[in-house]
């Protein structure tokens, strides 16, 4: 995902509209609960028409998932830019955490009420499908470039891409169940650390 400064005016406007719709969807979810949010309300909160909403997202789940999709796109770009000699999991961890740290999410602790709504979103099949479709191929290509493998023929880049996406899911699932609420960056770091260590059995 390129920085805003690298985009033309038209692309920046599109990005701003996507961000506004996604932010509006999240605000309404926290205010009313996920089940009570409809696209008409999201569009109204963002100051656009329902037709404009439909030009960007098929439903509220895609609008809410965009925030995470955009982070993974940024992770993909950051991974491609990491030093060539850096161990793969070190590079993946740094690239995955940087978007959250740039947003100031490192110390963010959601309320229990907010976590209930995020949990509903995470568990929705529509959310999982949107994230996987939008992120998998790009991650596989970035891993292939670092590992000098073929993303279409070799097992490693696609296995790594699938593992990274799964790691996001697992970290988020632990995050939304944390009590007291935990920072997502702490859980993500723990998740990638366990994978880098070969996922040892607990207690061994």
Task: Walk me through what this model shows.
The protein has 204 residues and is mostly helical. The protein has a domain at 60-196: Tetracycline Repressor, domain 2. Helices cover 72% and strands 0% of the residues. The chain has nine helices and no strands. It has helices spanning 9-32, 39-46, 50-56, 60-81, 88-102, 112-123, 125-147, 155-177, 184-196. The termini are far apart. The mean pLDDT is 90.
Brief description of this entry?
By secondary structure, this protein is mainly alpha-helical. The protein is built from 9 helices and no strands.
The residue-averaged pLDDT reads: 90
- Identify low-pLDDT runs: none
Overall 3D geometry?
globular
What is the number of E strands?
0
Radius of gyration computed on alpha carbons: 18 Å
Ends apart, CA distance between termini = 40 Å
Annotated CATH topology of the domain at 60-196: Tetracycline Repressor, domain 2
What is the CATH H-level superfamily of the domain at 60-196?
A: Tetracycline Repressor, domain 2
Structural class assignment: mainly alpha
What's the level 1 CATH class of the domain at 60-196?
A: Mainly Alpha
- The helix fraction, in percent, is over 70%
User: Helical element count?
Assistant: 9
Largest sheet at a glance? none
Order of helices and strands: HHHHHHHHH
CATH-defined architecture of the domain at 60-196: Orthogonal Bundle
**Residue share in β-strands:** under 5%
Structure keywords:
mainly alpha; 9 helices; 72% helix; globular; 204 residues; Tetracycline Repressor, domain 2
Q: What layout of secondary structure does this protein have?
A:
Elements: H1 9-32, H2 39-46, H3 50-56, H4 60-81, H5 88-102, H6 112-123, H7 125-147, H8 155-177, H9 184-196
